[in-house]
Amino acid sequence: MRYRLLGQSGLRVSEISLGTMTFGEEWGWGSAIDEARRIYEAYREAGGNFIDTANVYTMGSSEKFVGEFMRGHREQMVVATKYTNAHGGNHPNAGGNHRKSMMQAVEGSLQRLGTDYIDLYWMHIWDGITPVDEVMRAFDDLVCQGKVLYVGVSDAPAWWVAQANTLAELRGWSKFAGLQIEYSLLERTVERELIPMAKAIGLTVVAWSPLKGGVLTGKYQAAGESGGAVKSEREENARYALPMMQGFLPQRERQDRAVAALREVSAQTGRSPAQVALAWLRYRDVPVIPIVGARKMAQFEDNMASLTLELSPAQVAALDAATAVELGFPHDFFAKELVRNLVHSGMRDRILT
């Protein structure tokens, strides 16, 4: 395992994060505590230190499992958890990005994790209504109190993230160190605004669903090609992929094109399609740390093997071409030769940057 600095901080985090949404069975799928512990210990033995959880994962069991597993070596682990979401709906301030939601959520997470501080605290999802200064000032208060060491943002528009970090910098508050977004060969629309923003302001990208809910393992195509004999496996895969993920699955044409390209590189390298898809993320314009979540040890071991897979420039180019998205305006406009010539007086190729 190698390590990266998180954003513009000095915090060292492993190049793969262990996702623990699969720790617990309260959602009707996932790992019982003994299997979850085996996965956690295997991750630690590989040198992993970056654990991703959330207050709502498996109704709190995920955080409880993580807290129990890291007893005796808490200082070695970088624990990231999240606030914003809440189960139920018994009062309007149970969820959201606002200060009350943050303060009540952090206390619950600290208790379940059995720790007195959280290494990285994520805003889980932008709520669209809380003022940006309220969020960043509340985060800074938690850092000043020692309950949180670093802060990050997940699933928010690029303009909002840039505004938040600029405001924090101007006012001397804690800035975001990381950006957590969905990113994979089948989710590349983030390359329009979110990835350039992360690169410009120095955020490490932490990628959730790097295998697109299992699609990039190729198992859905395998089920379709083999007929009824594997129908039960396909149904199990769909059940495991989470009800909330079903709406994010890609259109079949793009999916088939991506999996075909993965299989070609897989055949060339002798590695699984999942390993190829995870390795591809290392060849992006910004540092990307994939969150790897597994329900079974075999899945976890296969995913971890991606760390030793090196792709050739031709293989990366082939995967890029198979899954590219249109960047649209203004990116396509900026790339036009006429525009470039006008903006740079026809001398762009002679201007060093």
Describe the fold and architecture:
This protein is of the alpha/beta class and 353 residues long. It has a single domain (3-324), classed as NADP-dependent oxidoreductase domain (TIM Barrel, Alpha-Beta Barrel). Helix content is 42%, strand content 14%. It is built from 14 helices and 10 strands. It has helices at 33-45, 61-69, 99-113, 132-145, 158-171, 194-201, 219-226, 231-240, 252-269, 273-280, 297-304, 313-323, 331-335, 337-343; strands at 3-5, 12-14, 17-19, 50-52, 78-83, 118-123, 148-154, 176-182, 204-208, 288-292. An 8-stranded parallel barrel has the order 3-4-5-6-7-8-9-10, surrounded by 5 helices. β3, α1 and β4 form a beta-alpha-beta unit. Residues 226-243 have low confidence and may be disordered.
In short:
This protein is α/β, with parallel strands linked by helices and 353 residues long.
Record keyword descriptors for this entry:
14 helices; 353 residues; alpha/beta; two-stranded antiparallel ribbon; TIM Barrel; 10 strands; single chain
What's the structural blueprint in terms of helices and strands?
Layout: E1 3-5, E2 12-14, E3 17-19, H1 33-45, E4 50-52, H2 61-69, E5 78-83, H3 99-113, E6 118-123, H4 132-145, E7 148-154, H5 158-171, E8 176-182, H6 194-201, E9 204-208, H7 219-226, H8 231-240, H9 252-269, H10 273-280, E10 288-292, H11 297-304, H12 313-323, H13 331-335, H14 337-343
Parallel strand pairs: 3-4, 3-10, 4-5, 5-6, 6-7, 7-8, 8-9, 9-10
Antiparallel strand pairs: 1-2
Helix pairs in contact: 1-11, 4-5, 5-6, 7-8, 9-10, 9-12
